[in-house]
UniProtKB/TrEMBL annotation:
The keyword Transmembrane helix applies. It comes from the Bacteria. This is Probable membrane transporter protein. Its main location: membrane. The chain crosses the membrane at residues 40-61, 73-93, 105-124, 136-164, 184-217, 229-248. It is found in: Cell membrane.
Amino acid sequence: MIDMVVLAVAGFVAGILNAVAGGGTFLTFPALVWVGLPPVAANATSTLAAMPGYASAAWAFRHDLRSEGSLRLPGIIATATLGGVAGAILLIVTPSDVFTGVVPWLLLLATVLFGGGPLLLKLAQSRGLGQAGLPASVFTVALVAIYGGYFNGGLGIMLLAAFSLLGYQNLHTMNGLKNMISSIISVVSSIAFVSAGLIVWKPALVIAVAITIGGYVGASQSRRIKNQALLRWFVTAVGAVTTLIFFLS
């Protein structure tokens, strides 16, 4: 019962964070490891559990879904799908002991990316030379999608930075696309993980229900949140503590 409560609370808060600022993986992944799942299974299960939360957040942002660059919306969907599949396959073929050793570094990378998100976005915008061409847009979206299929942590800020680099200006459009792509990646990678037998279903269902509710609540209230900086520092602190624990374990 304690395990189920921990998973439900982690899922609900993660759903809110994913919709508003990102960083939900910093809660769901360690929660799944805490209840006894191996890191590879925890990563796969966390990805599947996040899927309905991403979908509900994407639905809440459905009116903001549009492309501002040379890569149109169907192309974004196709590129994200192929990249997500490639990343998922890469995880499936990664030996468990190798992934266990890589996890702390992935968490560290995700924490640094998330904590430095505003600076990263400003840097991306300063380097943007207007709208990027089609090859650059496809390459950028595919690269981030591969990362997302392999490890979900920090995906949101990487997508926002990528769209800034490609010349996007409307934050609501970027948020809508971020949630849509995250949803696509979680769907295609989860199909691969289910086929490979990596999903532990009972914890996945608990987190999925909680994260769906949290995702819709977060997306609905995101425009009302004034102090985004405080929220970002909270998520970064959670990520830093999680990273330290995995390095020491």
